[in-house]
Amino acid sequence: MILEKKKAFQNFAAAKGLRSTRQRDIILDIFLSTHQHVSVEELYLKIKSSNPGIGHATVYRTLKLFAEAGLAREILLHDGQTRYEHVVAGEHHDHLVCTGCNSIVEFEDETIEKLQNEIAARHGFLIKNHKMEIYGLCAVCRN
Amino acid sequence: MILEKKKAFQNFAAAKGLRSTRQRDIILDIFLSTHQHVSVEELYLKIKSSNPGIGHATVYRTLKLFAEAGLAREILLHDGQTRYEHVVAGEHHDHLVCTGCNSIVEFEDETIEKLQNEIAARHGFLIKNHKMEIYGLCAVCRN
DNA sequence: TATGCTTTTGACATTCATTTTCATTTGACT
DNA sequence: AGTCAAATGAAAATGAATGTCAAAAGCATA
Lengths: 143, 143
Description:
Chain A is an alpha+beta fold and 143 residues long. Chain A is 45% helix and 23% strand. Chain A has 2 domains: 2-86, Winged helix-like DNA-binding domain superfamily/Winged helix DNA-binding domain (Arc Repressor Mutant, subunit A), CATH 1.10.10.10; 94-136, Dna Ligase, domain 1 (2-Layer Sandwich).
């Protein structure tokens, strides 16, 4: 699965005429090794610890590429940090965000997806993507 | 309805021991006269044109108050600007955002709301609020 | 209406995430 | 190897949002 993603990025890069660079390889490796919902800063620090040379801007730029390539998805929660989550082909999940402990639980609901498609169709919209976040207190924090 | 909102804010202010000020009245008036989904900057400019004295910080502070008072809801779309939409009691709507022309269409779907509640319950979550945005191209831009 | 106390305001500075700039480096093709 | 455009890193710039603080304005009371 990690290999597939690397291939996918290679294909994307080839199609776009992008060069293969050491930095992009490193960033991709480390991104693929992270948990879901890494913030750019988190990832940057992780990268820096093994590769001090890599700059802030490169991480930002490269993550945008991953998003374009369909490997990552940008998500905005309410903490002012952009996060990237791993995209698994054919799967879309949404988030339950605990405002108590900031934990994030993912869920998937086919019926909601269907309803979204219907709504979009009703308005003549061509869906590119969507996101849904439910904010509240998790089982632990509600007590 | 505008009067009700003004009353609602008065009540909130009274309960919180907040003072009634000229600025807050003006900002509320102008906020209530705007379309859905005003960004802070948009609102600030609108306010400034008739009331040049009012400062940036005051607009930010006051909008946060409106949100606390339940008159407004903060929404984050993908343009890096915080927007505030009008809250209508007992109603929740979500958004279709056109990435072509940046137009926003609202919709409401009771079934989705129900499913959200079920999902939250399944995870032991206590929902505070939620948001859902569908990104894509509107009927005009898709052509 | 004047007094005194406290909140609110506005200007400005600051912070923080992200983007831009630009000189230098590097990849890839000949 | 040589060429040239793309990519990088450091630093500066941007832009939204927040903090600071002295001055102004509410509001209660005399």
